[in-house]
C-alpha cells in the first residue's frame, strides 16, 4: 500500500525504513528537509493517491494538534489519519471528532520499540473504528514484530494511547525496581561485582527481561555509571497514568512512587536515577545528562 509519514526523527525514520522493507511505498515529510521525500504537507497529500492514509510521528501536544488541523484542510473524505505519537488519549477524541466532520477517519496508535524497532519490530496498540483500522492494517502488519503477538486493536478511539500510557507507567515502576536494587548492591560491602550479579540474573530468574538485558548493556559501557548524572526526565505519560488512576480511584502505589522518584532526581544527584537514565538511553535513545566534572577548587563555576 501507499503511506504518508510525517515526522522522520529517531522513531519515524526507522519506521519508514521497516515499512519500505515490507514492500510498501512510503512518502515522508519532516521539517528537516534533509530527511524528507517532499517539501510540505500539501506536497505529501498531493503525491498520495486517494483514499489516503497519513501517519503522524510528531511530538505530542501543540505540534500534533497543529499538524492534524492543517491536514484537515488538505485531506479528502475517505482518507484516514493515524496519530502514532505519544499523545494524551483525551486529545484523540477531539481530533477524531474534528476530522469526522470532514469525512476523514482517525486511528490512534501507541508505539513501543524505541531505537530497536527497525530490526525487532514495534509493539502497537491502536484504537478506532474497525473500518479505519482495516485501512491501516497492512502498515500495522509491517511494523509489528514477527509472530502472533505484538499488535492489538485495543478498542475505540483513545484506547491505543490509553494502553500505551499504562504500558509506560508499568515501565516506570519496573525501571525503578532495577535502579533501587542496583544502588543497594553498589552500596553494600559483601558484593564486589555488581555488574556480574546483574548479568547472572539474565538466565533462570523470574526477573529476567529485556530491561534487565539493557541494564547489563549499560553497565558494560560504564560499570558504575560514573559518566551519568543522576537525573531522569519523564515523558508525561507517567503523570497521565497517575492522573487516570486518581480519576478512576485505582491505587497505583508503585507507579506513583516511581514517578515521584524521578522528580526527586532533579534535586540531587541520585544514584538510582543514573540507572533510570541509562535504561531510557538504552531502549529509546533518550538523551542523558553527563556527570558534572569534579570541582577544580576555588573560583570554579556552579
Automatic annotation (TrEMBL):
<keyword id="KW-0560">Oxidoreductase</keyword>
<comment type="similarity">
    <text>Belongs to the 6-phosphogluconate dehydrogenase family.</text>
</comment>
<dbReference type="InterPro" id="IPR013328">
    <property type="entry name" value="6PGD_dom2"/>
</dbReference>
<dbReference type="GO" id="GO:0050661">
    <property type="term" value="F:NADP binding"/>
</dbReference>
<feature type="domain" description="6-phosphogluconate dehydrogenase C-terminal">
    <location>
        <begin position="160"/>
        <end position="295"/>
    </location>
</feature>
<dbReference type="Pfam" id="PF03446">
    <property type="entry name" value="NAD_binding_2"/>
</dbReference>
<dbReference type="GO" id="GO:0019521">
    <property type="term" value="P:D-gluconate metabolic process"/>
</dbReference>
<feature type="active site">
    <location>
        <position position="164"/>
    </location>
</feature>
<dbReference type="InterPro" id="IPR006115">
    <property type="entry name" value="6PGDH_NADP-bd"/>
</dbReference>
<dbReference type="InterPro" id="IPR008927">
    <property type="entry name" value="6-PGluconate_DH-like_C_sf"/>
</dbReference>
<dbReference type="GO" id="GO:0004616">
    <property type="term" value="F:phosphogluconate dehydrogenase (decarboxylating) activity"/>
</dbReference>
<dbReference type="InterPro" id="IPR036291">
    <property type="entry name" value="NAD(P)-bd_dom_sf"/>
</dbReference>
<dbReference type="InterPro" id="IPR006183">
    <property type="entry name" value="Pgluconate_DH"/>
</dbReference>
<comment type="similarity">
    <text>Belongs to the HIBADH-related family.</text>
</comment>
<protein>
    <submittedName>
        <fullName>6-phosphogluconate dehydrogenase</fullName>
    </submittedName>
</protein>
<dbReference type="InterPro" id="IPR004849">
    <property type="entry name" value="6DGDH_YqeC"/>
</dbReference>
<dbReference type="Pfam" id="PF00393">
    <property type="entry name" value="6PGD"/>
</dbReference>
<dbReference type="InterPro" id="IPR015815">
    <property type="entry name" value="HIBADH-related"/>
</dbReference>
<keyword id="KW-0311">Gluconate utilization</keyword>
<dbReference type="InterPro" id="IPR006114">
    <property type="entry name" value="6PGDH_C"/>
</dbReference>
<dbReference type="GO" id="GO:0006098">
    <property type="term" value="P:pentose-phosphate shunt"/>
</dbReference>
